[in-house]
Specification:
Blueprint lengths: L1 H9 L1 E2 L18 E2 L2 H11 L7 E2 H10 L6 H11 L6 E2 L1 H10 L1
Antiparallel strand pairs: 1-2, 3-4
């Protein structure tokens, strides 16, 4: 789940075992930009019931309890940008393009 959250939230991730062209390990600070397909797949992995959306409370719990926890301000900022204000749902199909383009 940690790498899934990293992809969803930062639309970048640090590969665990990446090799440079010369066969040596790539620098740890090298990040790979996620494509829309990768981000969508990450959201779909979190959407166990395959509803097409995540509940903002469910995502908030994951963000603050899994992997490298996000602080409250970071969570609120992400949810304000992603969640439907009326339902609290994050329809990730709509949000994927935004994450991939930022």
């Amino acid at each position: 789940e940690e790498i899934v959250l990293a992809i969803v939230l930062t639309h970048e991730y640090k590969p665990r075992h990446r090799k440079a062209e010369d066969g040596k390990d790539a620098p740890a600070e090298l990040f790979v930009r996620s494509t829309e397909d990768v981000i969508l797949s990450a959201f779909e992995m979190l959407d166990i019931e395959k509803k097409g959306y995540l509940d903002s409370e469910q995502l908030k719990e994951l963000l603050t309890a899994q992997g490298e926890p996000f602080n409250n301000e970071e969570v609120i900022e992400m949810l304000n940008a992603a969640a439907d204000p009326e339902t609290g749902f994050i329809k990730y199909d709509d949000y994927v393009t935004t994450l991939a383009c930022d």
